[in-house]
Amino acid sequence: xxxxxxxxxxxxxxxxxxxxxxxxxxxxxxxxxxxxxxxxxxxxxxxxxxxxxxxxxxxxxxxxxxxxxxxxxxxxxxxxxxxxxxxxxxxxxxxxxxxxxxxxxxxxxxxxxxxxxxxxxxxxxxxxxxxxxxxxxxxxxxxxxxxxxxxxxxxxxxxxxxxxxxxxxxxxxxxxxxxxxxxxxxxxxxxxxxxxxxxxxxxxxxxxxxxxxxxxxxxxxxxxxxxxxxxxxxxxxxxxxxxxxxxxxxxxxxxxxxxxxxxxxxxxxxxxxxxxxxxxxxxxxxxxxxxxxxxxxxxxxxxxxxxxxxxxxxxxxxxxxxxxxxxxxxxxxxxxxxxxxxxxxxxxxxxxxxxxxxxxxxxxxxxxxxxxxxxxxxxxxxxxxxxxxxxxxxxxxxxxxxxxxxxxxxx
Length: 411
Hints:
It contains four helices and 29 strands. It has helices spanning 4-19, 130-133, 306-366, 398-405; strands spanning 22-25, 28-32, 37-43, 52-55, 59-63, 72-77, 80-85, 95-101, 103-104, 108-113, 122-126, 135-143, 150-155, 158-159, 166-167, 172-180, 189-195, 204-208, 214-219, 223-224, 230-237, 242-249, 252-253, 261-264, 269-272, 281-289, 294-303, 373-379, 382-388.
């Protein structure tokens, strides 16, 4: 059974505890990584007791005249105790502390922040669709920093719609927006700002969309002849306002006061009449925006010389003429050959008839001719006897037969 003394002692202690007030400050302490964190506890009790410090509810950190964890120190004075955590790290972030002196104090929280590196945030942009779709993707990224700063976009100083930062699952995070451009955004300044305890007040990055217009020339022909006409269009793709079109041919500025050039649709179209270019020409169109951005395109038109075309046709014409002449000549030669054969046939008939007539005459002349002579020819000391007959041939030169007549006649 409890004695009267024990009961009284318990009641006394309860009265002390119920009346004891132990406070801790600050209740929320924020320090940068590497700095020291100091908490202080006070009590209004004069009773003798010992101080104790705990973290995360019941983990002992330090005890008066007793245990002190590594990295901590504890001091005690009249009704006051201080706990110091040296060289805080990110691992110490959101640690909970409280003290005990007869009674427990409230719970205080330690927040440890780390500065965002001065190179962050980083601004980036994808401008591939600026001219075609009049949109741009702008992105802002950062790495580390505790607590992670919020990345926020501004357009000419005005905050854009709130965007939730995206994380890569590690220490990097970013914010990106697909922004639809208007004609007023040609000189717009986009700014991404890191906002939060880990960032400096003016820690930001900026970008400006200096994207020149996309230009291409459309021509009604790819080649031309001297004295003809050309019609060309300078097409542009850009969200910006186009203020000027400048045309040049072979690096010479076109003078539109001349009658052979006509400019239409604020310079987008040009028509060239009765030109006398006799070589390939390079036509260029330069386009300028209101802020001075310049885009251009150049095309080459090939010159076709009709005279050279005619001269190129000359060998073909000559070949055709020569072929025709050769054919005609061959035809004529064939006809002549056939005619000569016919003529030769008639001639042979005529000659045969003439010979037959001559043979008849010779037969008639034989009756009046001189009688045949018998002669002997001496050859190589031999005597050859023979007869020589002259049929119808009357010697015109007597000397021919003189030697013959002198030959001795053998009986």
